[in-house]
């Protein structure tokens, strides 16, 4: 198979979809790998490293899309890329369709095959290609939140861990999944007073067992959230419904109950956000303020640490990319039940129900495509 890796063009997105080591593994299996010139520079991988691994370098993004049967990316295509995508071309990347109708309609019109990292799902309901970036984003949410609590950045002027004789900051985490768990570990390690809210009692029992003493759990419901936000210094939104839009757990009217300088970090913003007032921001302009509350809503947080993120992402995606390249997408998805739910749009039809429901668009069963094996 011919695989193309374009340079990411989203604002301050420095990750790349494939490391030189990953390229070498695909080339060893007889596949042709094309890397756009300087695609790896932001992550610390030079063109020469890719060439040494057996990949070939193409000068432009147009050349990369034009030649490839499978495009491997990190972030969803943005508008300048829509016209480059070919019919029947396989795109393997993060899409987060449910929060972006123009992207959804553009991919329908392209008649390409869209296989989303974030909905590849294991039998235990875990999301193996979302986990590594969720781990990075969860840890970064605390790092960024602690930074924006500083007074020059319009925060409350609180040190997350406090000092002897001064109480630490109160951190409220909405969601006890991968993001929430990683955020809690980081915040607890810095000495904060941490509360994780979730709707699953089994999950909270697990967290009570593994978390340090300065982490508490609490049932997530509107009454409890409204009560907890009054004293919270840093609130982290870490809610995920696979493939669907995140629910708004913090609404516009709740901001008035927060202390001036409270910091909100919405890690779910690329799925629509679980904080109503959050809208996607960029690393260039990461925050905005509403009612004296600081909102940090960068949709590609791991892009700020691209070396770590690229290695973590390739570790997870490469086994699946190899299967797709070796077998073609139909056979690979038919053989691997994990890959099958990753299919979101196929040749103009939405085959992932949560995406169709988000925009009230027609839905087709994915099996009709997988039964028709070439």
TrEMBL record:
CDD domains: L-AlaDH. Residues 149-297 form the Alanine dehydrogenase/pyridine nucleotide transhydrogenase NAD(H)-binding domain. Belongs to the AlaDH/PNT family. The keyword Methyltransferase does not apply. This is Alanine dehydrogenase. Residues 4-137 form the Alanine dehydrogenase/pyridine nucleotide transhydrogenase N-terminal domain. It is an enzyme of class 1 (oxidoreductase). It comes from Algoriphagus sediminis. The lineage of its organism: Bacteria, Pseudomonadati, Bacteroidota, Cytophagia, Cytophagales. GO terms for molecular function: alanine dehydrogenase activity. It catalyses: L-alanine + NAD(+) + H2O = pyruvate + NH4(+) + NADH + H(+).
């Amino acid at each position: 198979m011919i695989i193309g890796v374009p340079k990411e063009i989203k604002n301050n997105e420095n990750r790349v979809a494939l490391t030189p080591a990953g390229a070498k593994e695909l080339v060893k299996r007889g596949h042709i790998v094309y890397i756009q010139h300087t695609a790896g520079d932001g992550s610390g991988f030079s063109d020469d490293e890719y060439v040494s691994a057996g990949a070939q370098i193409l000068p432009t993004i147009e050349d990369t899309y034009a030649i490839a049967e499978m495009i491997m990316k990190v972030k969803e295509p943005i508008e300048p890329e829509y016209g480059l995508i070919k019919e029947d071309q396989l795109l393997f990347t993060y899409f987060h369709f449910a929060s972006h109708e123009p992207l959804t309609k553009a991919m329908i019109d392209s008649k390409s095959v869209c296989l989303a990292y974030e909905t590849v799902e294991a039998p235990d309901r875990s999301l193996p290609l979302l986990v590594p970036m969720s781990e990075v984003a969860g840890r970064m949410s605390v790092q960024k939140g602690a930074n924006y609590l500083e007074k020059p950045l319009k925060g409350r002027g609180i040190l997350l861990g406090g000092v002897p004789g001064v109480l630490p900051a109160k951190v409220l985490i909405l969601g006890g999944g991968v993001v929430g768990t990683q955020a809690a570990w980081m915040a607890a390690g810095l000495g904060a007073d941490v509360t994780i809210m979730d709707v699953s009692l089994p999950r909270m029992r697990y967290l009570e067992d593994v978390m340090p003493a300065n982490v508490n759990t609490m049932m997530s419901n509107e009454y409890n959230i409204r009560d907890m936000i009054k004293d919270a210094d840093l609130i982290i939104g870490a809610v995920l419904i696979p493939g669907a839009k995140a629910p708004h757990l913090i609404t516009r009217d709740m901001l008035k109950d927060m202390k001036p300088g409270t910091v909100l970090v919405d890690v779910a913003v690329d799925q629509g956000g679980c904080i109503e007032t959050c809208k996607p921001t960029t690393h260039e302009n990461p925050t905005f303020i509403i009612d004296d509350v600081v909102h940090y809503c960068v949709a590609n947080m791991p892009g700020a640490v691209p070396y770590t993120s690229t290695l973590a992402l390739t570790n997870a995606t490469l086994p699946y990319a190899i299967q797709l390249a070796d077998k073609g997408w139909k056979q690979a998805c038919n053989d691997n039940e994990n890959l099958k739910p990753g299919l979101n749009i196929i040749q103009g039809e939405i085959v992932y129900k949560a995406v169709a429901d988000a925009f009230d668009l027609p839905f087709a069963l994915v099996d009709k495509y997988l039964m028709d094996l070439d």
